[in-house]
TrEMBL record:
Signal peptide bounds: none
Domain of life: Bacteria
Taxonomic path: Bacteria, Pseudomonadati, Pseudomonadota, Alphaproteobacteria, Hyphomicrobiales
SUPFAM superfamilies: Jann2411-like
Domain (Zinc finger CGNR): residue spans on this chain: 155-194
Protein's name according to its UniProt entry: CGNR zinc finger domain-containing protein
UniProt keyword list: Plasmid
Entries under Pfam families matching the protein: ABATE, zf-CGNR
Length: 196
């Protein structure tokens, strides 16, 4: 387990949907560095839930208290399956059906075991269930499945610099970067250096 916690900031949540923000929970998806992981511990996962707005402080603290590597590894597996299905959409490639199947399995185990309830069509967890690794992973899988079926495919893009996924909500649909403040500016600087 890592001794330092990831400090979540607004720039981590540029996806436009929680499933995209989860898929983006790495430093760089296109060119991963040696310390690319942002979700290093259950505490990081709990803090991510709070920073994303999916959970309040008590629920996030409950997630942070879930012990063991298997929970964090399961979160990574759900994140990577989400990245594959949304990445294939953004690249206009055939859907990653095995990744989608994995998410359905995770969601089904949480629903059939009663760990996850529903509030309308959204997953809903009682406070005590936020301590249950199966419920938390099922909730994330359900959010990704919901995004797969509801997000506008023509507006789903991948940043050409870092590979983060985002919904292009700009008026003309011409957004290119995950964020102009990060990748957009870095690209401008590197182009400027090339022309010096």
């Amino acid at each position: 387990m890592a001794s330092t916690q990831t400090k979540w900031v607004e720039e981590h949540f540029i996806g436009g949907h929680p499933a995209l923000d989860l898929a983006n929970a790495v430093f760089n998806r296109r060119v991963p560095g040696p310390d690319n992981e942002l979700l290093k511990s259950a505490r990081d996962v709990g803090n991510w839930f709070k920073a994303s707005g999916l959970a309040g402080a008590r629920k996030a603290e409950a997630v942070a208290g879930i012990g063991g590597e298997p929970f964090v590894e399961r979160i990574h597996a759900i994140r990577e399956a989400s990245a594959r299905i949304f990445g294939s959409i953004a690249a206009k490639e055939p859907p990653a059906t095995e990744a989608l199947g994995f998410l359905f399995e995770c969601a089904a185990s949480g629903l059939s075991g009663g760990a996850v309830g529903l509030n309308g069509t959204r997953p809903d967890l009682a406070l005590a269930r936020w301590r249950d690794p199966e419920a938390v992973t099922a909730l994330l899988a359900m959010l990704s499945i919901e995004g797969y079926f509801t997000l506008p495919r023509e507006r789903l893009h991948s940043c050409p610099r870092c590979g983060w996924l985002f919904l292009d909500t700009s008026r003309g649909g011409k957004r290119r970067w995950c964020s102009m403040r990060t990748c957009g500016n870095r690209e401008k600087v590197s182009r400027h250096r090339e022309h010096e």
